[in-house]
Write a structure and sequence with these properties.
Blueprint lengths: L41 E3 L6 E3 L1 E4 L15 H14 L4 E3 L7 H7 L9 E7 L11 H12 L4 E9 L4 H4 L1 H13 L2 E8 L2 H9 L5 E5 L11 H13 L3 E5 L10 H13 L5 E4 L4 H17 L1
Parallel strand pairs: 3-4, 3-10, 4-5, 5-6, 6-7, 7-8, 8-9, 9-10
Antiparallel strand pairs: 1-2
Helix pairs in contact: 6-7, 8-9
Length: 299
């Protein structure tokens, strides 16, 4: 990995004269303006120093083998969705190697300046026969090339389930720490898929950011909300940035009252800084942004 300045942003020539389909008259590379002054609130993730919007645009619904419901929208479909999210105030992009969404983020950077987005991605640590082999250092280089950026804001170890993941992936953690020192990434952490892994993350000084599955009903979670939330609180109280996932239970909590109750539960806990949701349509973005603003205003 090359040592670079954290301030060295993406340098590329943007093709002029192409009109954005979603906003006629705005050219590629031109910064898009938010619709109004009541854009979605932003917050710093714990002690990481990384400021994100309260919502992230998830790109991994049913994500596996470089495909997801978001990548299935196609280049233009994804761009239209992501630009709509950006105009609503969502500046946080949740990508991952196994979703195949790096290409989509690279395409999005033709429309939105790199420094206006927080890009998170994840390294799949379990061996398989369809992800390119390579060290964590080589993987970070591949990620940056695929996305078309000199630096990544947040990199997580993906889908950890072991109580001992901290020791099992010591070498990868050391590589990410070095990448952070070099300005290649800004923060590192873990995406947890078991209560044991979450407990280990909450206790680890290495972790800057945690992805944790949380909603009010326990749908698609690692344990009951009553058992998971105290661990999330421990992590948050220790200065870790917490991003909630499965807020709508991966599609299980689709009713209006269900969605409202989950958002109320997660945000009113004050233990979750931001949430990642795999939106597939613009009306889903508008509805969720409206509800999040309402909950934050009233709490």
């Amino acid at each position: 990995m090359k040592k670079i300045s954290r301030r060295k942003f993406l340098k590329k020539s943007l093709a002029g004269g192409t009109v954005i389909a979603l906003n006629p008259g705005k050219l590629l590379g031109q910064d898009l303006l938010f619709k109004d002054s009541t854009k979605l609130e932003q917050i710093v993730l714990g002690n990481s120093g990384v400021r994100v919007s309260r919502l992230a645009l998830g790109t991994g619904t049913h994500g596996w083998k470089f495909k997801s419901d978001q990548t299935a929208l196609g280049d233009q479909g994804f761009i239209d969705l992501a630009l709509h999210a950006y105009e609503a105030g969502i500046t946080f992009i949740d990508a991952a190697d196994i979703y195949g969404s790096h290409r989509n983020v690279q395409q999005l950077l033709r429309y939105i300046p790199r420094e206006k987005l927080v890009i998170l991605t994840k390294i799949w640590m379990q061996p398989n026969d369809w992800i390119p082999s390579g060290s964590a250092s080589e993987t970070l280089d591949r990620f940056r090339k695929e996305i078309g950026t000199d630096y990544l804001d947040i990199v997580l170890l993906h889908s950890q389930t072991s109580l001992d993941w901290v020791n099992e992936h010591a070498k990868a953690r050391e590589t990410l720490s070095q990448a952070k020192e070099s300005g290649i990434i800004r923060a590192h952490g873990v995406s947890c898929h078991s209560l044991e892994a979450l407990k280990a993350a909450a206790s680890s000084e290495w972790v800057d950011v945690i992805f944790a599955r949380i909603n009010n009903n326990g749908n698609r979670m690692d344990d009951t909300p009553e058992n998971v939330m105290p661990v999330i609180k421990q992590a948050h109280d220790s200065g870790k940035g917490v991003v909630g996932m499965k807020i709508f239970g991966c599609g299980d909590l689709v009713g209006e009252t269900q969605r409202e109750a989950s958002l109320q539960y997660v945000l009113n806990s004050k233990n979750v800084d931001a949430m990642t949701i795999g939106f597939e349509a613009k009306d889903q973005i508008d509805d969720t942004v409206k509800r999040v603003k309402k909950v934050l205003k009233e709490r």
